[in-house]
Hints:
The chain is an alpha+beta fold. It folds into 2 domains: 2-68, Arc Repressor Mutant, subunit A; 74-123, Dna Ligase, domain 1. The chain has 5 helices and 6 strands, in the order αβααββββαβα. It has a 3-stranded antiparallel beta sheet. A hairpin with a 7-residue loop joins strand 2 (56-58) and strand 3 (66-68). The chain is flat and about 45 Å long.
Amino acid sequence: xxxxxxxxxxxxxxxxxxxxxxxxxxxxxxKESEPKVVLASVYNNxxxxxxxxxxxxxxxxxxxxxxxxxxxxxxxxxxxxGAITDFHFDDLTRAIEEKLGEKILGYNLNVxxxxxxxxxxxxx
Length: 124
Ligand SMILES: [Zn+2]
Ligand SMILES: [Zn+2]
C-alpha cells in the first residue's frame, strides 16, 4: 500500500528513540529525510504499526499520545511536569495472571510520581 511507504522509516525513528515521541515529533524527524511527507500519513502509519503490535502507544492523561518501542518496559510519569521516564519493574505478568486466573496478553503500567527535578523545585 502506497500510504505505508514511510512505515520502515517511522519504525526506525521510534525504535531508536527513548524520548516517547508524539506524532508531530515523529513527523518533524521524518521530514528531515522525507521532505514531502504529510502529517496525515504519519498518523496512518502510526495507527497501523500500533494495530500490528510493532510499536506501542503511550497514553497519559492530559497529554498527547506518544509512541514507543515494544521492548518490555514500564513508565514513570511525573504528575507535575508530565515527563515520561522508562523504568524496568519486575515482569508482573505472572502475578496478574495468578490473581486473575486467566492468561493475559500484556499490560500498560504508568506509575505516577514526582520527578527529581520537580521534587527539587518543590523543596526549595
Ligand atoms: Zn516533573
Ligand atoms: Zn518508554
